[in-house]
Design a protein that fits this description.
Strand content: 25-35%
Largest sheet: 7 strands, mixed
CATH topology: UDP N-Acetylglucosamine Acyltransferase, domain 1
CATH superfamily: Hexapeptide repeat proteins
Order of helices and strands: HEEEEEEEEEEEEEEEEEEEE
Structural class: mainly beta
Distance between the termini: 57 Å
CATH architecture: 3 Solenoid
CATH class: Mainly Beta
Number of domains: 1
Strand order of the largest sheet: 2-1-4-7-10-15-18
Number of helices: 1
Length: about 190
């Protein structure tokens, strides 16, 4: 499909009814190629540079300047998703803003509808390869999420979080750690 018009892709896609709600970025893309005008609101310049297909699903995605997605990301923006300036998303990362409701034991999960919660990726945050970011999470400015991490809770600015579930292991700049004072007392 590389190099063919978007309309040709939509005609051949096995889920062609769903394709209008998706945005595809290919290895030759330098910016979003929208299937629908409101898929992503690009508020900054130089937003994408990817090596192979990355999917942006949903219509409620806002992109700051110089946001980078690496190869093979899957991004669900139905619940609201903001990428602040200079956010860097590693390859094969999944970001979800919606999930199944599971409250009724007498109904199948697939019949219970969805719960949507927004996600925010802060300025200059770096999400490592193969991470999963769950609905309702905020990744703070300058934070780093280690490869393969599953993020179910907020990551504060400048924190380094790793694991499943992701846990904070340190701060990039101890004087910026929440609740800690700068100076020689930090880390004692």
């Amino acid at each position: 499909m590389r190099g063919q018009p978007v309309a040709a892709y939509r005609r051949r896609h096995p889920m062609r009814e769903d394709v209008p709600t998706m945005t595809m970025i290919t290895d030759s893309s330098k910016r979003v190629i929208p299937f629908r005008p409101n898929d992503a609101k690009v508020v900054g310049a130089d937003c994408f540079y990817v090596d192979e297909i990355t999917w942006l699903n949903g219509w409620n995605i806002e992109l700051g300047a110089r946001v980078k997605f690496n190869a093979g990301c899957w991004i669900n923006g139905y619940g609201g998703l903001v990428f602040e300036d200079d956010a860097n998303i590693g390859p094969r990362t999944l970001i979800h803003t919606a999930n199944h409701n599971t409250d009724d034991p007498n109904r199948p999960i697939v019949e219970q509808g969805w719960e949507s919660r927004p996600v925010r990726i802060g300025r200059d945050a770096w999400i490592g390869m193969g991470c999963i970011i769950l609905p309702g999470v905020t990744i703070g400015a300058g934070a780093i999420v280690g490869a393969g991490s599953v993020v179910a809770k907020d990551v504060p600015p400048y924190a380094v979080a790793v694991g499943s579930p992701a846990k904070i292991i340190k701060y990039r700049f101890p004087d910026k750690a929440p609740g800690e004072s700068a100076g020689p007392e930090v880390g004692r």
